Amino acid sequence: MKFNDPGNTTAQYTIEQATAKLANELKVNKTLTQLDLAHNQISDGGGEALAEGLKVNNTLTQLHLEGNQISDRGGEAVAEGLKVNNTLTQLDLYGNHISDRGGEALAEALKVNNTLTQLHLEGNQISERGGEALAEALKVNNTLTHLDLGYNKISERGGEALAEALKVNNTLTQLHLRTNQISERGGEALAEALKVNNTLTHLDLGYNKISDRGGEALAEALKVNRTLTHLDLGYNKISERGGGSLVEALKINSTLSILHLTGNQISDRGAGALADGLK
């Protein structure tokens, strides 16, 4: 289902009608397990209709809504659906227009939902308030394993809140925070969390502002962490000092298998030290 003229109100009405009809089918369908509606210009009305379908459907496990035009109203509706749905395991809302209000609603849903394992919210407009709300949800949620918040507007407070959540959460294995506004203070907070967290295997902090102080803190965490296998610190303004600390950590750490340091400021000498550390 593709409609390629976003300025055509007739087409938009047709999209909403088609989505509403599909949502009604979800209420009675007993076989569908995956529904992909990505890049279909679905807006809040369609999101609300699908949310109503989720409230009664008991077979769907994956719902893909990436690249649509769902904003906070639609996000809130989907969140209400998640509160009662008990089969959906993967929800993809990448590249919509959800901001803090929608993020807060989804966070409230995560506090009671006990089936969702993957939530993709990358490429929305979630900032501090939404990030903090999702962090609070992670403290009580015990099913989510994959949370993607990349390409949002999360900065220090949101990063620190997520770090506090990681100290008590024991199910999340992947946390993606690429291309936000997290700087050294957030990096330090996440490092402290990694010292006690024993489930996270994949942390993506690429394209933030971690810098040397954050890099040094993460290096200290790697000396004691025994679960993280993938760490992305690409494009974070880390120079020789942070690179040197990571070298020392790699001499001790025995679980990290992938470390991305692309696009930093480590220089030839720092790269040489990293190479020596890997021997």
Structure report:
It is found in: Cytoplasm, Cytoskeleton. One of its GO terms (cellular component) is cytoskeleton. Its main location: cytoplasm. With 279 residues, the protein is of the alpha/beta class. The protein has one domain: Ribonuclease Inhibitor (Leucine-rich repeat, LRR (right-handed beta-alpha superhelix)). It has helices at 9-28, 44-56, 72-84, 100-112, 128-140, 156-168, 184-194, 211-222, 240-252, 267-277, and strands at residues 34-36, 62-64, 90-92, 118-120, 146-148, 174-176, 202-204, 230-232, 258-260. A 9-stranded parallel β-sheet has the order 1-2-3-4-5-6-7-8-9, with no helix packed on it. Strand 5 (146-148), helix 6 (156-168) and strand 6 (174-176) form a beta-alpha-beta unit. Helix 2 packs parallel to helix 3 (72-84). The protein is elongated and about 60 Å long. Mean pLDDT is 93; it is low at 1-5.
